């Protein structure tokens, strides 16, 4: 049927230049090769209405008919599409390339819907009854490889993320959903949670961040995963309580809250691993090359973290030497190749932090003894030094950075302790309880305002603008708190025309390896087993990346 309808449409696809068109349920042409949807629609030749004929598609106005409770029919897939849309818009406001939302992220999302058989797939005749029987008789509703398609996707940029749905199947699923004992505002909320946990990548809130990071990595944007998660925690990117941005007619209640209501911070490892699973699941090609001019290259990231950690600029020459020596700056090592199990999954920000730690161990050993001896030597030389920049003193650097780090860490802990997980928009598990919940919420707000006036509490200040740097050190300060221009002459010596470290020793972090095959770690990090200076350096970069020190220790 599609071949007859698309026979006269011979334009090449703007994305892949192929001529291989199909039709969505909404009448739009889409490319079967790259899944790109055009704005062109099929012209209807015969518009006569035939009685007793089954309606194949349904328009927005018909499908979005208001129910008795004033809401409209919506699907979990639509909810996640709205979340992705809001997150993409927030990233665009932060300066990300505008094509991320409507080209890269949108195509990733379309491909996911097709691979997961939610859209862009054919529904053979008679599959409706078969699918419903599976829903009623089994909890694994996706066990059938030929499960019919529920949705047809429009662009992420379109209003409210509308999706075209087959009328007869939507009404049938609605009846099944309404017959279940557990209530949800969406059409498929109860069925969505009945799915088998081992199925193909069921969409979750952390996976929305995996989608965003995958799009950022494809565009080679100067945002690392740790920065993305930090912007989420700081509220610059919608994630926590993002359902507050849903339209009023999309009633979110009951089981929907278990899907969209987040009560924990996003975890680095989970988002990172899901991103790689997604890339392999979507059968994506090799990502654009990470070259030495890209922000994600170790040489670039090391420069950034050296500045933020208030370390001497001369250390960058040493980090570059380490990167070149062990070959971790090569394009093939850094570029993501989905599905290739022989290539390493690179955590660009963690890798850069680990390189700096290795260089500090090469020069200062970090054994709670040698670095202090070097610091005393540099202090004596600085007293008599009248030419050039001052020698770098590890002890003085430790005292200055530790003081700032303690202040920032305390501020972060207080902000997390004061964070209100309950959103401003009231939540309810049943439409019948909605008036009571709204009335109770209004009473709480009124009481809070009254007690606030009596106690003279100050309203929370507006969030500061997001920044890539959490610790700032200015060379203009006269108190000597900035170490960027300090010299490493006190820890280096010249041999055969090359500067080498005076320290001849080095200790390994993996003397005691982990024997558990399913652990996934080379060695476990226990603070008591390592020097305190080494622990401090790990803690500093762990704070900057908002991850556990053990991640950097593993790297």
Automatic annotation (TrEMBL):
Signal sequence bounds: none
UniProtKB keywords: DNA-binding, Metal-binding, Nucleus, Transcription, Transcription regulation, Zinc, Zinc-finger
Pfam families cross-referenced by the UniProt entry: Rrn7_cyclin_C (PF20645), Rrn7_cyclin_N (PF20644), Zn_ribbon_RRN7 (PF11781)
Domain RRN7-type stretches: 8-39
Alphabetized GO MF terms: RNA polymerase I core promoter sequence-specific DNA binding; zinc ion binding
GO biological process: nucleolar large rRNA transcription by RNA polymerase I
Location of the Rrn7/TAF1B C-terminal cyclin domain: 264-454
GO cellular component terms, A-Z: RNA polymerase I core factor complex; RNA polymerase transcription factor SL1 complex
Domain annotation Rrn7/TAF1B N-terminal cyclin: ranges: 80-247
Localization per Swiss-Prot or TrEMBL: Nucleus, Nucleolus
Family statement: Belongs to the RRN7/TAF1B family.
Protein name in the entry: TATA box-binding protein-associated factor RNA polymerase I subunit B
